[in-house]
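Reviewers of the previous submission asked for a worked example of the structure-prediction workflow described in the proposal, so we include one complete record here. The input consisted solely of the amino acid sequence. No template or homolog information was supplied to the procedure at any stage.
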Amino acid sequence: MRAGDANPAQLKYWTAAWLERIKVLYAAHSQLTAAWEDAAAPAPREAPAAAARLEEAGAAWDQALAVIDEARKKQMAAPGLQAPREEGARHPGPPGQGTSQMGRQAGLSHIAGDDGREVQTVL
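From that input alone, the workflow returned the following structure tokens.
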């Protein structure tokens, strides 16, 4: 969703569509969790209904994931898509703040030197 925050005027509808997809996924997860609990140890006469609810909840979960996957693939194939940041690239922000994941693993931290230029230091 940070992509939408970067350019809200241009990506308003994109953000809204992804938020809706995620909302549906969360609802499907809640439905699936409840169905799992109901199907765990149902009374004998309730077992068929519990199994049917679990099957329905599983189908809703699969459908929500399929919609997200289809949208992801379609958007990744779109021309003009900005390339993702390189793995381990430091998030842009105020100079002297932040440490990349790779930098943390290597024991490095980004700070501003006396002249304002960014330097790495050992943590």
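The chain has a mean pLDDT of 77. We consider this example representative of the routine output the project will generate in years two and three.
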